[in-house]
Amino acid sequence: MKKEIKKIVLAYSGGLDTSIMIAWLKDNYPGCEVIGVCGDVGQGKETEGLEEKALRTGASKLYIEDLKEVFIQDYVYPTLKAGAKYENTYLLGTAFARPIIAKRIVEIAKAEGADAIAHGCTGKGNDQVRFELTIKAFAPEMEIIAPWRTWELKSRDEEIDYAISKGIDIPVTRETNYSKDKNLWHLSHEGLDLEDPANEPKYDEILEMGVTPEKAPDTPTYLTIHFEKGVPTAIDGVEMNGVEMVTKLNEVGGANGIGIIDIVENRLVGMKSRGVYETPGGTILYAAHEMLETITLDRETTHFKQMIAGKFADCVYFGQWFTPLREALSAFVDKTQETVTGDVKIKLYKGNITPASITSPYSLYSEEVATFGEDDVYDQKDSAGFINLFGLPIKVRTMLLGDKIDLG
Q1: Coil, helix or strand for 359?
Q2: Domain with CATH 3.90.1260.10 in the chain
Q3: Which residues in the chain are classed under CATH 3.40.50.620?
């Protein structure tokens, strides 16, 4: 027997999809109460007037939850420490924002005694997976309503028509109807002309967090970022929490044309998707963190960590944050970060990030060993024996098989 739905908690952003979804849910679940939850992970002005709008369109109440600092400390920084980039490029801005929002929605749904949780994710995207895997992790019995998978609206144009018919204010027009996602870490742009990879992005029209490298200053900007166990804690000697850190670096990075990427990625559901992402502060932090690891991690740890970074990124991108595997990977990463403490001075110039200075009390770099000059700690004759042993398998194979093998 199908459970009667009397109270629904909706993941509410006030964007096009969720703006019309309150009315749609009340039309299709007669007599139900709809409660909105907005997880504030740094959308900025997007949260202004949101409560009034939600109530005006039929919600009984709206929770606006400030999750920004927890988002940075518990989701962004663990991913940064892992060096995780999806398909070696994407810094996972949307991906790791979904688990924290969904977890808070579940907590509120339970407290409100809700019968179901609804979200505005499309049936083609990754976010439906990220939301629903989190819901399953914390409330496996909860009914999930995903209108995009069932409703009669087949496009964003039809959504706009529906909004007009219901008298609902929406934040887009047909001409500016890019699909965007914004948080403290990044801003993504998808849809319209970007759906064809043959089209160069209209950067002057779409960029919001910064400028293109061509429009950046003609003089470089220098910053020194301090890390403690892989976590950034200060800029130019000024200690900052996570929100302050990312906000500051977004401002400086954006002004210098840092962190703009145009990529085609492989979505979890199987299709390719093209998007333009702005991640100025995050791009700086990833670069600085990688620079610090070059002097604080040994070779074998570095190489193995690079291997697991891809798997960590997959876990985040695929919505598998609350899984034993992601937790185990984080435990490994945390062990590697015990000595990733120090200062990285970087130069920002027209979209580029270059190292100016790297120092650490745990540095493994020895000028005495590495020098091209005279030294008393390295006997160059030792390398002959090392090469003989390291190359022994190659030598023996050729000696035994000779002309039976093709060496190209």
Answers
A1: strand
A2: 186-297+340-359
A3: 7-175
On the question of pLDDT at 152 being above 90, the answer is: no
For helices 127-138 and 97-112, the axis angle rounded to 10 degrees is: 50
**DSSP classification of residue 58:** T
Determine how many CB atoms are found less than 10 A away from the CB of residue 161: 14
- CATH class, domain 7-175, is alpha beta
Answer whether 296's CB lies under 8 Å from 340's CB. Answer: yes
Topology of domain 186-297+340-359, per CATH? Argininosuccinate synthetase, chain A, domain 2 (3.90.1260)
Whole-prediction pTM value? Answer: 0.93
Residue type at 122? T
Q: Give, in order, the Cα–Cα distances in Å from 42 to each of 79, 97, 340, 359.
A: 18, 10, 28, 32
Tokens of 116: 């179901």
**Rounded distance between C-alpha atoms, residue 350 and residue 257, angstroms:** 6
Residues identified as active-site: 17, 98, 127, 179
Q: Kindly report, residue by residue over 109-145, the tens digit of the pLDDT.
A: 999 999 999 999 989 999 999 999 999 999 999 999 9
Residues 6+ apart with CB under 8 A from 385: none
In which element (H, E) is residue 343 found?
strand 342-349
Of 289, 290, 291, give the one whose Cα is nearest residue 358.
291
* Under 8 Å between Cβ of 278 and 208: yes
CB distance 11 to 117 below 8 Å = yes
End-to-end alpha-carbon separation of the chain, Å?
A: 68
